[in-house]
Amino acid sequence: MKVIVDFDRIHGKRDPMIYGHFIEHFHRQVYEGIFDPGNKLSDKDGFRTDVIEALKKIKTPILRWPGGCFVSSYDWKNGVGKNRPAVFDKAWRVEEPNTFGTDEFIAFCKKVGCEPYICTNAGTGTAEEMSDWVEYCNLIDQGIHAKHRIENGNTEPFDVAYWSIGNENYGSWEIGAKSALEWGRLVNESAKMMLRVDPNLELSAAALNDLDWNIELLKQSGERLKWISIHEYWDKLAQENDLADYEQTMVFTNYLDDQVQIVRGLLQAMKLDGKIRISYDEWNLRGWHHPNVHTVEQGKNPESYLAPRDLNDDNSQYTMADAVFSACFLNMCLKNCDIIGMANFAPVVNTRGCIFTHKDGLVLRSTYFVFELFANQLEEIVLDALIKNELQMDVISKKGKTETVSTIDVVATRDENNNASLAIVNKDPQKSHSVEVVFRGGTIPRQYQLFSVIGDSPDAYNDVDHTGVGIKESSLEQYSEAKGITVPPHSVNIIKFYK
Ligand code: AHR
Predict the structure, then answer these.
(1) How far is the CA of 23 from the centre of ligand 1 (A)?
(2) Tens digit of pLDDT for each residue in 440-488?
(3) What mean pLDDT value characterizes the chain?
(4) 450 neighbors 495 (Cβ within 8 angstroms)
(5) Quick check: 352 and 54 in contact, CB under 8 A?
(6) Which of 1, 287, 302, 359 could form a disulfide with 233 if both were Cys (CB 3.0 to 4.6 A apart)?
(7) Cβ–ligand 1 contact at 167 (below 6 Å)
């Protein structure tokens, strides 16, 4: 197989926010995840310092919070100030202590060094409540909400630039679900009030690959939005925790950009492409397991709807399948960098996240290493690489259907000085493959170095007392066009070239 890289054939410049993350008030993501007061690893504010360091190491650019379904009945005012009432969270049927709220979220983002991204309650919430939240965060000292922030000890505004109006309000499972017509009107009125508070906001709104929903949304509020938000979990596990195996997971890599192309076409038809970008602000191969709560018939006892949530914490579920899939998803974002400006791994800590916390430390799950390589080793200019003699393989889906997928997934990047860095994903569960890389239009590199996320099998994983996945760095090798670069089976590879 050959990859021809022309330094002058440019897709665009990737926005680093495609390496973003998401955290929700669900199970152990916030409490015992990023916020664990009393733990020996937490700082004076109760934040897990080991989690902060791990998020810094993957250059976390932005963090979306507080939900997700949780937000659609969340009253942000319960999470600020001295009086923090514990309330019943009707989204997830648990008590929310409200000890982690807006001020804590902003403080956490400052420690990580990432942008805060707040998703508002457009389920039971109103345009006034959403814009009041913007007042609390972004006004200097005018009005009751900014003054309340000052009373709470934060004299300087938080300057939160990124806001999403609502979360999946199209879904029957969502509290306060809306029709397309209702949604367009609520988003427009909310955006109007939020922008009256701070005209510099980067506003998004919940959307999906449904033309009626999006046409109504964009007709009514398109002129006020900078982003349109879409979500996907390919291996849907809410009711049954029956994870796709390695081969079945590879089938999903045929369907990575389905939503993106539909939304792209709609934005073009409405002449909004170039003005509105896509925020893929929830994505993960693995859907979260939370049975009997998104259903009409609710679980009647904790064993049927609460206890099963612990199954998300089984670290052996997160294998090279997750790493290979996640790398292919990020490659898709890079190849569509003209329209995808943000993506948020859902979630980043615990549940199906790439970081698992326990009382004595962390487990870095396989996808963590993909972020570590992509965020640190790939460059910002994305090139349009040409693939010749593409390798393919037949795999069998979860439904028993045989599908053909490309075996090798490639994205080429460079910096302003034509220093190239390629991501080459080998989906083959058994075989290594040799990839010839040919450069056009720039100085031919002399050497290269291979950084690989590898595991000893397709089902390799990490756990508290088990290390099966990590990053292997090769020494500097002499580069020659004729000599292929060998990538191991079921691996994610970054090849950095040096002139
Ligand atoms: O499974 C978790 C949920 O997935 C999130 O809360 C929601 O945004 C999405 O439906």
Answers:
(1) 11
(2) 998 899 999 999 999 999 999 999 999 999 999 999 999 998 899 999 9
(3) 97
(4) yes
(5) no
(6) 287
(7) yes
**Position 318 pLDDT exceeds 90:** yes
Identify the residue whose C-alpha is closest to ligand 1 atom 7: 68
> Would you state the structure tokens that stand for residue 407, as one six-digit string?
């075996």
What is the predicted pLDDT for the residue at 254? Answer: 98
Residue 441, classified by CB atoms within 10 Å of its CB into exposed (0-12), middle (13-18) or buried (19+), is exposed
Whether the CB of 184 sits within 6 Å of ligand 1:
no
Q: Report which ligand 1 atom has the smallest distance to the Cα of 67.
A: 6
Q: Please report, for residues 90, 167, 294, 394, the alpha-carbon distance to residue 95 in angstroms, rounded to integers and kept in the order given.
A: 9, 20, 17, 47
Nearest C-alpha neighbor of 158 from the set 119, 196, 110: 110
Residue 192 has pLDDT above 90, yes or no: yes
| Torsion angle defined by CA atoms of residues 25, 27, 33 and 36, in that order, rounded to the nearest 10 degrees | 90
Any atom of ligand 1 within 6 Å of the Cβ of 24: yes
Q: What is the best residue among 234, 237, 282, 312 to mutate for testing ligand 1's pocket, by most ligand atoms within 8 Å of CB?
A: 282
